[in-house]
């Protein structure tokens, strides 16, 4: 079976459910007074091609899972009918913020932009969590906004890069269109924990690698799994296009990391 298709993603969700994992949204994770022994937060960064996120959202509901969907302000992500439908399905909607990049590093302009778009997304869902968009080609890190301001002042209860205990939660992301793409990730990585996970052998390249670990009960009991739904497509032409484009993007990211390093 080809990787990064809705079919293998369904297998992943079903396998997690059958292994006894409880699906939680980011909002639920941040507010639960007591967390289950086995849990998984399914986080989706809707960077592009929002319709593919809707397809994944519908698949998840069919399999008894709820997830968190983070939308950007750009038109390729910000599709009101898609956002509305995903919220109606019972998923969490969050703001995938990149205000520092869009404001050219001006924190006052960035916080005004953040306030405006948080209000906008709250017309679809009472947004209580946000998540930084990595923006690998930008010199600005969106998280730097919170050196001057506090997102909790806006009724936000969580931001994954600040409010997830990664000493307790294992992090998997499909950045780079693989599950070990931290080597080509500019910002979507967990500093201070990745080396320990590698030491423990918690390295997976393909979705099949993860499925095998679930079957053999080798996957950690608490997980955050981040996907970019535009990558998960069934049609061979679109699937091949994603494969080629991601290969080019990875090359650019390697160059950027080398320059910054």
Task: Outline the structure in words.
The protein is α/β, with parallel strands linked by helices and 261 residues long. It has helices at residues 6-18, 26-31, 50-62, 80-88, 99-102, 107-121, 160-163, 194-199, 207-215, 236-260, and strands spanning 22-24, 39-46, 68-71, 92-97, 130-132, 170-173, 222-227. Strands 1, 2, 3, 4, 5, 6 and 7 form a seven-stranded parallel β-sheet that branches. The model has no long low-confidence stretch (mean pLDDT 94).
Topology:
Blueprint: H1 6-18, E1 22-24, H2 26-31, E2 39-46, H3 50-62, E3 68-71, H4 80-88, E4 92-97, H5 99-102, H6 107-121, E5 130-132, H7 160-163, E6 170-173, H8 194-199, H9 207-215, E7 222-227, H10 236-260
Parallel strand pairs: 1-2, 2-3, 2-7, 3-4, 4-5, 6-7
Helix pairs in contact: 1-3, 1-9, 3-4
Supply the key terms.
single chain; 261 residues; alpha/beta; TIM Barrel; 7-stranded parallel beta sheet; 10 helices; 40% helix; globular
Oligomer: single chain
Which percent range fits the helix content? 25-40%
Q: What's the count of strands?
A: 7
Distance between the termini: 37 Å
Any idea what the shape is? globular
Largest sheet: 7 strands, parallel
Radius of gyration, in Å, reads 18 Å
Percentage of β-strand residues = 5-15%
């Amino acid at each position: 079976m080809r990787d990064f298709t809705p079919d293998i993603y369904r297998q992943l969700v079903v396998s997690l459910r059958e292994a006894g994992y409880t699906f939680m949204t980011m909002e639920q994770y941040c507010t639960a007074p007591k967390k289950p022994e086995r849990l998984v937060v399914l986080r989706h960064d809707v960077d592009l091609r929002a319709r593919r996120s809707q397809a994944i959202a519908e698949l998840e509901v069919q399999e008894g899972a709820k997830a968190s969907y983070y939308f950007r302000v750009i038109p390729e992500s910000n599709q009101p009918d898609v956002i509305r439908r995903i919220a109606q399905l019972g998923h969490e909607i969050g703001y995938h913020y990149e205000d520092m990049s869009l404001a050219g590093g001006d924190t006052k302009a960035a916080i005004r932009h953040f306030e405006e778009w948080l209000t906008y997304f709250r017309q679809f869902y009472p947004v209580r969590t946000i998540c930084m968009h990595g923006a690998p080609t930008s010199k600005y890190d969106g998280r730097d906004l919170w050196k001057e301001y506090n997102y909790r002042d806006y009724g936000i209860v969580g931001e994954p890069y600040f409010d997830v205990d990664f000493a307790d939660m294992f992090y998997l992301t499909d950045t780079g269109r693989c599950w070990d793409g931290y080597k080509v990730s500019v910002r979507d990585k967990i500093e201070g924990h990745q080396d320990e996970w590698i030491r423990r052998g918690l390295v997976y390249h393909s979705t099949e690698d993860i499925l095998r670990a679930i079957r053999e009960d080798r996957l950690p009991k608490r997980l955050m799994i981040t996907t970019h739904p535009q990558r998960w497509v069934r049609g061979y032409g679109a699937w091949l296009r994603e494969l080629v484009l991601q290969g080019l993007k990875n090359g650019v990211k390697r160059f950027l990391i080398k320059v910054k390093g």
